[in-house]
Amino acid sequence: MKNFLQKIPEQVKRLSVLLIVVIVVFIVATSLLTPKDFGLVGHYRASAIKINADQKMQYAGQEACADCHDDMWKTKNAGFHKNLSCEVCHGPSLNHVNEPDQFKPDKPRDRIFCPVCHEYNPSRPTGFPQILSASHNPRRICVTCHNPHNPTPPQTPKECSACHAEISSAKSVSSHMDIPCTKCHEASDKHKLHPREYLPTKPANREFCGQCHSQDAKGDKFIPRINMATHEPRYVCWQCHYPHLPEAQ
Ligand code: HEC
Ligand code: HEC
Ligand code: HEC
Ligand code: HEC
Ligand code: HEC
Ligand code: HEC
Ligand code: HEC
Ligand code: HEC
Fold it and tell me: Nearest residue CA, atom 36 of ligand 6?
């Protein structure tokens, strides 16, 4: 035994002493510092539940608003802002619900508020209603023209370009400039009101382009023709030709 202890190198002995000190400090510290109620009901302090429950409520939830503002509730839920809760715009309003005359919620009427969601930003989904506030009716507050509870603009945009501006400006300088969008896409009027629910059709196959570009297609002589059998038959045309600006590259 004595031999064995002597054989252990000096640095290992010192390390072992250090390790024992660390373990002792750890045990003492955790038993002194861990709150008494830790672990009673789970891996947290039992009293944390009470502290959280004691926090003052600030939001009432939009159902609460319906009791007294029935008209606005109905208007909003029928319009484009149906997915926004009242308090997204009016701020936390629980104290207003409890004492309507005492506390008034915010009314965000200034021009900087609405662009928080509507300022043009390429990362927003295509078709999300966006504006450039610097050029969209500048100097006038948004709510003079848009009812915040039913923001549909005074007239619905009629042209495809109102929403597909980039595509239509590409097309307008291309050799397809005279082909109306609806020649290639069947779009119902409902698409302009509820774009994502009523999507237009898109050309599905090579033959669609072939109706003007194949060698036996009827139509003007000046339309460039291709041999459908030999011109890249393994791909659909728009893998190479952007249909809205089809200039061959
Ligand atoms: C118990 C009834 C009641 C409830 C619930 C209630 N309100 Fe009101 N609210 C009122 C009354 C009363 C007024 C004052 C109307 C007036 O001055 O003409 C008012 C006024 C307002 C105003 C206008 C404040 C101003 O400065 O003109 C806003 C905004 C508003 N409420 C938002 C809300 C929102 C959001 C909720 C839901 C979180 C809500 N209210 C819930 C009764 C209520
Ligand atoms: C998109 C933001 C937005 C949402 C969502 C919204 N509001 Fe408003 N609300 C406004 C703005 C902005 C005004 C101020 C309009 C003005 O002064 O012309 C306003 C005004 C009001 C007023 C005062 C009306 C008046 O004539 O002065 C009430 C009451 C109100 N909102 C209640 C509600 C309730 C209830 C909801 C939910 C059902 C709601 N709002 C949802 C932005 C919003
Ligand atoms: C009110 C705005 C609006 C107007 C006006 C509009 N669109 Fe759209 N369009 C959209 C939105 C939003 C989408 C969906 C985009 C997305 O899901 O990424 C869309 C999608 C499309 C698509 C793609 C369908 C798909 O399956 O991917 C085509 C094609 C299209 N629109 C054609 C048209 C044509 C043609 C017109 C004119 C007759 C038109 N749109 C007018 C907003 C509009
Ligand atoms: C002078 C009246 C007026 C003012 C002020 C105004 N708008 Fe508009 N807004 C319109 C009209 C009209 C349209 C639809 C025609 C168009 O395309 O311009 C529209 C369109 C929009 C659209 C696009 C709708 C869609 O379907 O794509 C958004 C988003 C919008 N406005 C938000 C705002 C915001 C945010 C403000 C304030 C910073 C504002 N507007 C101020 C009149 C106005
Ligand atoms: C929290 C984000 C948010 C805020 C704040 C907000 N909006 Fe909207 N807005 C939306 C959403 C979401 C839609 C629905 C988009 C859709 O259906 O594709 C929308 C739709 C619209 C539309 C399109 C209506 C149409 O007919 O095409 C207009 C215009 C608009 N809002 C104006 C406003 C105005 C004015 C304000 C300020 C009072 C405002 N918004 C504040 C999120 C917001
Ligand atoms: C010559 C036929 C043709 C014309 C004209 C045309 N498109 Fe297309 N469009 C296509 C084809 C083909 C696709 C499918 C591309 C794909 O799947 O990659 C497409 C796709 C789209 C898409 C889906 C998004 C994208 O870029 O792929 C939208 C939105 C669209 N077109 C809108 C329009 C609008 C708006 C016009 C008028 C300004 C228009 N198109 C004119 C053939 C056409
Ligand atoms: C309604 C008939 C029609 C349809 C459908 C059509 N095109 Fe065209 N295309 C034309 C016309 C017209 C021209 C322009 C001829 C000119 O002015 O030189 C053209 C030109 C072209 C060019 C030559 C561009 C250049 O100048 O180099 C290409 C490539 C092309 N189209 C591809 C397509 C593709 C891909 C499709 C299917 C998505 C398609 N076209 C569908 C009528 C059509
Ligand atoms: C793999 C890529 C590819 C595919 C797929 C493809 N093209 Fe092309 N296309 C080209 C290239 C590259 C050119 C230019 C060189 C040439 O004339 O062969 C061209 C040229 C054209 C031209 C102009 C011919 C001229 O005389 O000016 C037309 C029209 C055309 N393509 C239509 C189509 C149509 C319609 C389809 C689908 C049926 C299609 N292309 C599929 C790559 C492609």
Answer: 181
> In the structure, which protein residues have their CB atom closer than 6 angstroms to any atom of ligand 7?
175-176, 179, 183, 203, 208-209, 211-213, 222-224, 237-238, 241, 243, 246-248
For residue 147, give the nearest of 89, 105, 97, 209 by alpha carbon: 89
Question: What pLDDT is attached to residue 156?
Answer: 56
Output phi, psi for 109, to 5 deg. Answer: -90, -10
Q: Are 129 and 118 in contact (CB under 8 A)?
A: yes
Q: Using one digit for the tens of pLDDT, what is the confidence trace for 9-33? A: 999 999 999 999 999 999 999 889 8
Report the Cα 76 to chain-centroid distance in Å: 20
Name the pTM for this structure: 0.55
| CA 71 – CA 87 distance, rounded (Å) | 16
- The span from the CA of 211 to the CA of 213, in Å, is 6
Residue 1 predicted with pLDDT over 70: no
Q: Note the pLDDT tens digit of each residue in 189-224.
A: 889 888 888 999 999 999 999 999 999 998 888 899
Q: Residue 241 has what pLDDT?
A: 93
For tokens 């109905």, the residue is: 74
Q: Are 97 and 90 in contact (CB under 8 A)?
A: no
pLDDT at 248: 55
- Residue identifier of the C-alpha nearest atom 20 of ligand 3: 199
- H or E, element range at 73: helix 70-78
Rounded CA separation 45/35 (Å) = 7
